[in-house]
Specification:
With about 375 residues, the protein is an all-alpha fold. The protein contains 15 helices and no strands. Helix 12 (about 290-305) packs antiparallel against helix 13 (about 305-340). The longest helix is centred in the first third of the chain and has 40 residues, at about 5-45. Residues about 5-20 and about 345-375 have low confidence and may be disordered.
Length: about 375
């Protein structure tokens, strides 16, 4: 005998409530977990803390690091803005900056380093939910192109710094970066062929229970740019600029603290991508705790001393504190603009056919067709 519909609805509601409560509890535990990890690492590096306190800090290098960190955010914003504009969607750079700064701020609220992407999607579609398909596709594609650029940086470091191969611990990482860069390039070239998105394999991937939705959004994103391949190439180039600038900001922190035990700038092109990948995928706010631990281990692998491990930890810690300060300053700028009569946090997209209609991966619209529909809307 089947249960009454009211009982089924009650059970469904209880399940959702439990899931929501679990999510809230986990959300509140993220910062205590990150602080606990930092406290553990700080206890390991107590002697190093005394040495750092006795050194003369070069504050001008912290200014350089802050400027480079800000440039990193701006370049990343330009990349996403370019992907959105490529779809003939009216989207001002000022609005892209507001969403970018808020997304960067929310990286330290939501898990890992991908929380800002969720924030940008929510802000962009809050007033225009019918544009979710286009906006979500550009955000997912922007994140994946950024990740591919990060892998490319590690692969380039493997080729430009042959002495790194003398470290067995890093040899596997370099092989993964080299293989990932080649595989990613081949994957992009195949995906840009119209028949690839309609293949049986792709349809099966889209039907998978957990990753199917992500694959579907990725296919939508690729379909949007099959006729605009130069935009994707430019996005990868901007991604390389983002990561090189970000790595330079971290190296500036080593100079500010006088860390003579730190590896060279070129070596950082390999070890920082590893640390950033760990920071992105571990459920910690902004990757805090994961980045410091990864840098501590990687500095030790490269330099082979305890003082180098301490340098890695304090470099990562100073970089994280600097990044939090930049995020707070960016968020304050957005709210000050709003208080001064700026535009509300809504999607700055006018009604256009491409933004209001669901995106199909079967027959992506041609560039003339998109321009014609935009002109008549």
């Amino acid at each position: 005998m089947s249960e009454p519909s009211e009982m089924q609805e009650d059970r469904a509601t209880d399940s959702v409530s439990r899931g929501s409560l679990t999510g809230k509890i986990f959300s509140w535990l993220r910062w205590p977990l990150a602080v606990s990890i930092l406290a553990f690492l700080l206890a390991q590096n107590r002697e190093g803390l005394e040495q750092v306190a006795s050194r003369q800090i070069v504050w001008s290098w912290f200014v350089v690091a802050a400027a480079l960190r800000l440039v990193t955010i701006l370049i990343g914003t330009v990349r996403w803005w370019m992907l959105v504009r490529a779809q003939d969607i009216p989207f001002s750079f000022r609005d892209a900056m507001r969403f970018g700064f808020l997304g960067n701020l929310f990286n330290y609220v939501l898990p890992g380093s991908v929380g800002g992407d969720v924030t940008k999607v929510v802000l962009a579609v809050r007033e225009k939910p019918e544009a979710r398909a286009v906006v979500a596709a550009t955000v997912v594609l922007d994140r994946l192109l950024g990740l591919y650029s990060l892998v490319l940086v590690g692969a380039l470091a493997s080729l430009l710094h042959p002495s790194l191969w003398s470290h067995p611990e890093l040899g596997v990482v370099m092989l993964i970066f080299l293989g990932g860069s080649v595989t990613g390039l081949v994957g992009i070239l195949i995906a840009l062929h119209p028949a690839a998105l309609n293949s049986r394999v792709m349809k099966k991937l889209q039907a998978l229970p957990k990753v199917g939705s992500l694959v579907t959004e990725l296919c939508r994103g690729v379909a949007l740019y099959q006729s605009r391949r130069r935009v994707l190439a430019a996005a990868v180039g901007l991604g390389l600029a983002v990561h090189v600038t970000n790595i330079s900001a971290l190296v500036s922190c080593t100079a500010a603290l006088g860390m003579v035990e730190a590896p060279s700038w070129l070596a950082h092109l390999l070890i920082v991508p590893v640390a950033e990948i760990a920071a992105a995928f571990l459920p910690l706010p902004g990757g805090i705790g994961a980045r410091e631990g990864a840098l501590q281990v990687l500095y030790g692998f490269l330099m082979g001393s305890e003082s180098a491990m301490q340098a890695g930890f304090f470099t990562g810690l100073s970089f994280s504190l600097l990044s939090v300060a930049i995020a707070l300053a960016g968020g304050a700028w957005v709210f000050l603009q709003r208080d001064r009569g700026g535009q509300p946090d809504e999607l700055p997209i006018e009604k256009a056919s491409d933004a209001t209609n669901p995106v199909s991966t079967d027959n992506p619209p041609s560039e003339p067709a998109r321009r014609s529909r935009t002109a008549t809307s």
